[in-house]
Amino acid sequence: MFQVRFHGRGGQGVVTAAELLASAAFREDRYAQAFPSFGSERMGAPVLSFCRIDDKPIRTREPVTEPDALLIQDPTLLHQAGIVGGLRPDGYVLVNSTRGVDDLGLAELEEQHHVGRLLAVPATSLAVADLGRPLPGAPMLGGFAALTKAVSLDALLAAIAERFGDRPRVAAGNSAAARAAFDFVTDELKTVTRHA
Amino acid sequence: MPYQRIKFYQTGSFAAGNRLLPEDLRSVQAARTRSNTLTCGHRACQGCGEALGARYALDAVMRATKGKLIAVNATGCLEVFSTPFPETSWQVAWLHSLFGNAPAVASGVAAALKAMGRTDIRVVGQGGDGGTVDIGMACLSGMFERNDDVLYICYDNQAYMNTGVQRSGATPPAARTATTPAVGQEPGNTFGQGKNVPLIAMAHEIPYVATATVADLRDLEYKAARAMDFHGARYLHILVPCPLGWGSSPADTIKVARLATESGLFPVFEAEAGEVVSATPIRRRVPVTDYLRLQARYAHLFRPGERTDVIARIQASADRNVSRFGLLHDHHPERKQPSLNARTSPEGR
Amino acid sequence: MRKQIEGSRAVAETVALCRPQVICAYPITPQTHIVEALGAMVKKGELNAEFLNVESEFAAMSVAIGASAAGARAYTATASQGLLYMSEAVYNAAGLGLPSVMTVANRTIGAPINIWNDHSDAMSQRDAGWIQLYAETNQEAADLQIQAFRIAEELSSPVMVCMDGFLLTHASERVDLPTQAQVDAFLPPYEPRQVLDPHDPVSIGAMVGPEAFTEVRYLAFERMRQALEVIPAVEADFGAQFGRGSGGLLKLYRTDDADLIVVALGSVLGPVKDAIDELRDGGVKAGALGITTFRPFPAEAVRVALGDDSRLRRLVVLERSLAPGAGGVVTGDLRAALATGDGGPPNTIIHTVIAGLGGRPVTRDSLRHMITSAEQGVLPEFSFLDLDRHLVDGELTRIRATRRSGPSAENILRHLAGRT
After folding, report:
1. Between β-strands C313-319 and C260-264, what pairing exists: parallel, antiparallel or unpaired?
2. Predicted-complex ipTM score
């Protein structure tokens, strides 16, 4: 089972991102479960969402406490104690930021994990460029796909197209941002492995 | 109010006035083919205003809808005395659910009929003042604001009679009830409390709101039928004296109702979309004491000594109604003058 | 058609396939997505029904009563405080024998106010005369809606389908949604046993006095007894027509040779099964009994399922609701079902574990520990899972020390916040 935890703020599409990931996994004929950390609706409040992917039916329902991947959609949450709590030793971390991992004060974390598993991607910038709105969910998933290979980009793009099927421009914008992030992370990984 | 050159005052189905009127002007009750929706054999008290009002109102609605009617009843006197197991005196499809939900249940029936393509069948919700003014107010307001296609009839005897005469939001000031006893400095119900549901109904701007009493049964029949001309939420508020709860003589039920209107305490009017369109003028104005003296629930205002202070306040509220609704004027600026034929023939409405 | 879909959405789409004619609802977390989805379908013309935005849950159930009595298929959904607010009408609907279906997105009842899952709400209505079905997964939640209409209309008795709020309603997972043709073949149009019809007027809802009340209520009792037959029959028919198991009275998981059986309702059965598999690998012979139909309580089916084995057995009843002053809710019914003439099965020890109240996650670790403790004989007869003893003791101390101790809930929260 592959478990993902998303961190963000209300209004940033954290729940949608988890659902899109589940939808992408579903398209690859895998079982997936996505759900939010539930709370009263409030813009800007920290929110969590979760996604599990497996090849057999998923019966557990507790929050993801030992994620294989952390997607941090809002870098201002990095200062929160415990945000990387439970991350598996070989886990991935993808942070939405224009700054590098080192600039974000995550050097220590990087040491604990294999090189190439902790990356930053400018998801918000890509979203603004392709979608016109600072909604980093889709590009984060694009980066995630490149980083973890847990889902294919094609499956992700298909999920995006279906989710926003009634709003073609939104679908196209999200797809473009996801693809751009995928390419960005792919390039980053080449750089990293070249230096490793 | 029927417009007729020769006025006959109806005192019963066999009154001379009825036989001299053309058939289409006669009371619904005068017809042998009347529905008898609330038929005989119920257990109402002698002189029950509600039984009288319900009979007249529902037969008029049944005639207007050619019998295609479903009635929803709140818990209360009417429901209790009309359906003592294993009997029922209802000759109409009738549902009783709870005390506070009759308007909502009626809305449900109307929605079902619409969903099933049977909007030819109409719906009446009905209850006493308790089930309407207090516990049913939320459901009533919901029905109003959604404009559900229901005529709601409130039989107002101004207290929770079925449970032993307790005060309701419709109990008038100074009236004695079991929970507003005639003791202390301010005996009876407190001044400054209570709700005027016809005005609340008008505030929702529903298609039709009217008040009526069992003193003018032709007017009551007219209003019940008139209400069925409209679709959407409609409200009919009928004053129905309760001899037991009011402490009046069973023989005085109609008289007491008439005095309520003639004193100005109970204005009789119609409103459409939130605006008053007609008001029944007072033929012969009487002081409120004429009305109060006939009811033991006001006895404490006269014995041992006359409470002129309280009576004056009651008189003031009557005066306010008279001026507010123009009850001493013969013509109300926006009043409809229905024609003879249009009044009573189904096609003319 | 298989979809990756949010539980609420799956329920809404399935309910729509059941051709409801009147839908009435008042929003309450966590049911909102269900009624919003249905409302949108009606507004867009995808579903031909009357949709009423009512002013309270009391009105919602009342509208359903009126609609059902007039001969229409009626549906509503609620949770928690809303279910309590409509309680009078809930009893009324069952008493009148009106077959509407209601989805209860299980949420706890305040005070303290809490929007998260447990079974307190549905449990509070367990004696109202409604059939209560509990879904384990979103697939089952969807399937039970279809079965519910059929059961309700066959028995002329209302049915509530319970699905854990947030855990199921807000979880996106794989659900196989049927086609309209499949549902139509399974669920014929509503044929009322009693109906408000001007051509054949009847009075529904008359007062019944002491001379006949018992007999009328006996009929309700009898309907519940018949439900024990109708529910499995509908389950079987559903399985035949839709090709999957859903519904029924109860489910058994690895109970054949089990020494210890966890009894539970709803979505917690998922993690319970995971824990059982893990422990089985370690040699512990554990199993699970999932109760799908809680009302009527399937006493005979439970007895048959648990068998009359003479070896020592432990039952751990995992309860998602608390009966203050009495203990567990399900435990009572279970004990009564297992009690025989001589006072009860001598070889069965029953533990009650109150868990998951107000949305507290029931974790694999906790379940593993619970089962292991039971197996080792150190699990108390009655306990709360994951209770923070320190927090509770702190408040009890404060209460003992001073009269004006303040609101307990706030004190505990403050204490909790002070820790982090």
Report:
1. parallel
2. 0.91
| Interface contact A38-C116, CB threshold 8 A | yes
pLDDT for the residue C340: 66
Tell whether C210 and C308 lie within a shared domain.
no
Is the same domain home to C393 and C375?
Answer: no
Tally the domains of chain C: 3
For the record, the structure tokens of C24 come out as 């009435």
Query: Contacts of residue C167 in chain A, CB cutoff 8 Å?
Result: 35, 61
Identify from C172, C362, C364 which residue to disrupt to test chain A contact, counting A C-beta atoms within 10 A and taking the largest count: C172
Dihedral (Cα; C53, C56, C61, C64), 10-degree rounding: -20
Is residue C31 within 8 Å of C86, Cβ to Cβ? no
More confident residue, C364 or B8: C364
Q: Are C322 and C341 in a shared domain?
A: yes
> Which chain B residues are within 8 Å of C212, Cβ to Cβ?
85-86
| CA distance linking residue C175 with residue C70, whole number of Å | 34
User: Which tens digits make up the pLDDT trace of C291-348?
Assistant: 999 999 999 999 988 876 666 689 999 999 999 999 999 999 999 998 865 555 667 8
pLDDT in tens, A116-174: 799 999 999 999 999 999 999 999 999 999 999 999 999 999 999 999 999 999 999 99
Say what the alpha-carbon torsion angle C3, C6, C12, C17 is, to the nearest 10 degrees.
10
Domain residues for the domain of B96 are 16-348
Residue B116 lies in a domain: yes
The answer to whether residues C347 and C234 belong to one domain is no
Question: Measured between beta carbons, which residues in chain A are less than 8 angstroms from residue C118?
Answer: none
- Rounded to whole angstroms, the Cα distance separating B308 from B326 reads 26
* Cis peptide leading into residue B304 (ω within 30°): yes
At residue C296, φ and ψ (nearest 5 deg) are -70, 150
Claim to verify: residue C380 and residue C395 sit in the same structural domain: no
Question: Could you tell me if C278 lies within 8 Å of chain A, comparing CB atoms?
Answer: no
Separation of alpha carbons C56 and C308, rounded Å: 49
Nearest residue on chain C to A37, alpha-carbon basis: C166
CATH code at A2-195 = 3.40.920.10
Q: Do chains C and A touch (3 or more CB pairs under 8 A)?
A: yes
Dihedrals phi, psi of C247, to nearest 5 degrees = 85, -155
pTM score: 0.91
Nearest residue of B to residue C97 by CA position? B97
In angstroms, what separates the C-alpha of A65 from chain C's closest C-alpha?
Answer: 10
C149 with C261, same domain: the answer is no
CATH number at residue C355: 3.40.50.920
List the strands of the sheet with C131-134, edge to edge: C50-53, C22-25, C74-78, C101-106, C159-164, C131-134, C293-295
Residues of chain B in contact with residue C94, where contact means CB-CB under 8 angstroms, are none
Judging contact as 3 or more Cβ pairs under 8 Å, the answer for A and B is no
CB-hemisphere CA count at 13 Å for A2? Answer: 21
* pLDDT for position C219: 93
Same domain as C232, residue C87: yes
CATH number of the domain to which B144 belongs:
3.40.50.970
Q: Is C173 close to A18, i.e. CB distance below 8 A?
A: no
